[in-house]
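ping. complex inputs:
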Amino acid sequence: MFELYKGDITELKVDAIVNAANRMLLGGGGVDGAIHRAAGRGLYEECKTLGGCETGEAKTTGGYQLPAKYVIHTVGPVWHGGGYGERELLTRCYLNSLKEGVAHGVKSIAFPLISSGAYGYPLAEALEAAVRTLKDNAPEDMRVILVLYDEKTYMAARETLARLTRE
Ligand code: AR6
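pong. complex structure:
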């Protein structure tokens, strides 16, 4: 089951939220910074034990002070123009995060729009990858939510979903 939601991912009471992290897994700006701030020190301490994460892979921690039970950390590709395997890596972020969710018995999972901020992925392409991958791979018994932070991105996501549903 796939749906869109407009707002702040740190406020969602779901089984797992996905973090658009970097390979160090020690926090940063954007949604990563917001998640670490809301989760508190415990998240940082657990992240230190993970030994980082490769681009396209995903690792799970507790949610600490977040309403969500788990945080699934994934590392999106930096946009280098599109000819460096970015799309495949981005698709793997979504699929590997879903896989982590299934492995942890998660029934609801919320994703940010991975790579679309600091990592420079163009909005239309980031939306296409996110919506297509999540819509086509969301397990029937799992609520899979793509969270868009602002109105403009949310409206663009709705258009992308409508277009892909017509295909
Ligand atoms: N809830 C939902 N979405 C959010 C939130 C929020 N609270 N805050 C930002 N976004 P970015 P990236 C959206 O830059 O491009 C970090 O420093 C934001 O509007 O967070 O994968 C990491 O440590 C954008 O659409 O992630 C890495 O170094 C989307 O989340 C690097 O940035 C992703 O933007 C990762 O860059």
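Residues 8-10, 20-22, 28-32, 34, 76, 112-119, 147, 149 surround AR6 (CB under 6 Å).
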